[in-house]
Design brief:
TIM Barrel; 8-stranded parallel β-barrel; 50% helix; 14% strand; globular
Length: 260
């Protein structure tokens, strides 16, 4: 088990706003801003309502934004697009690690320069390793990548670290090795987190919030288990409680290991 740097349980939750209208998204922001740490704006909502219209709405309510654009383009284009995110107040965003080290390094350099000029903290940029909907068959047979999917994810995480990214979005199955091989000062955000009482849907490599914490995950992306619940606030509270229990269990285990 791994005890990570102190993060309030609710702040570990990145709520996926998989909505088609700004009104629906705002409903969840108003309802859940005190129960989750960040709101994830992905392509579904961004295309339907506009990136910055959505970001402005979330910021208006005093909440934080994670933009899940998975940018993957030539270095110049990716860096310029990312700089515009910083200028508009996005707190977290991501790039696709398969875009390569030059793309990531160029983006890090430009966004840090923009942040310095604006007098704001350096941006937090994560790299996506492999999508949580991917299985070994997709990787090997369709993308013709012949290594084990976990090994591939670890390989991309190492490239991200070398490219000065702040962390990765990766499966919990890879988190323990990422901690061991890359270090403690590297953020891990985990998608496909589903409480045991929820439906798996279209994700393949799924873990519970408790399992994610014990693997060393910092932040977890959770959507439908909360937004599709009859009582989204109650669902969020259940997940916060599960995270708190898992953190306490990790701390107890560390204490017991120290006393051995």
């Amino acid at each position: 088990m791994v005890v990570r740097k102190p993060i309030f349980a609710k702040d570990r939750i990145v709520l996926a706003l998989d909505c088609d209208t700004l009104e629906d998204a705002e409903k969840y922001v108003v309802m859940l801003k005190d129960y989750v740490g960040y709101f994830k704006v992905g392509t579904q909502l961004a295309v339907a309502c506009g990136i910055f219209e959505t970001v402005n709405m979330i910021k208006k309510h005093g909440a934080k934004v994670f933009f899940d654009g998975k940018f993957n383009d030539i270095p110049y284009t990716t860096a310029k697009a990312s700089a515009n995110l910083i200028r508009r107040g996005v707190d977290f965003f991501n790039l696709n690690a398969v875009g390569g080290s030059k793309m990531m390094l160029t983006t890090v350099k430009l966004t840090r320069e923009v942040a310095k000029k604006m007098g704001i903290p350096k941006p937090t940029i994560l790299a996506v390793t492999t999508l949580s909907s991917f299985g070994q068959k997709t990787l090997s047979e369709e993308l013709n990548v012949k290594c084990n999917i976990e090994e591939y994810g670890i390989h991309l995480a190492k490239i991200a670290k070398e490219s000065e990214m702040n962390g990765v979005i990766a499966s919990a199955a890879e988190a323990v090795r990422i901690r061991q091989e890359i270090g403690e000062d590297f953020i891990i955000m985990c998608p496909a987190v589903r409480p045991s009482w929820s439906v798996v849907n279209d994700q393949l490599r799924v873990v519970t919030p408790s399992e994610a914490v014990k693997a060393g995950v910092d932040y977890m992306i959770i959507g439908r288990p909360i937004t599709s619940h009859d009582n989204p606030v109650a669902a969020a509270k259940l997940i916060v409680n599960e995270i708190e229990d898992a953190v306490a269990e990790c701390r107890q285990q560390v204490k017991e290991d120290f006393l051995k």
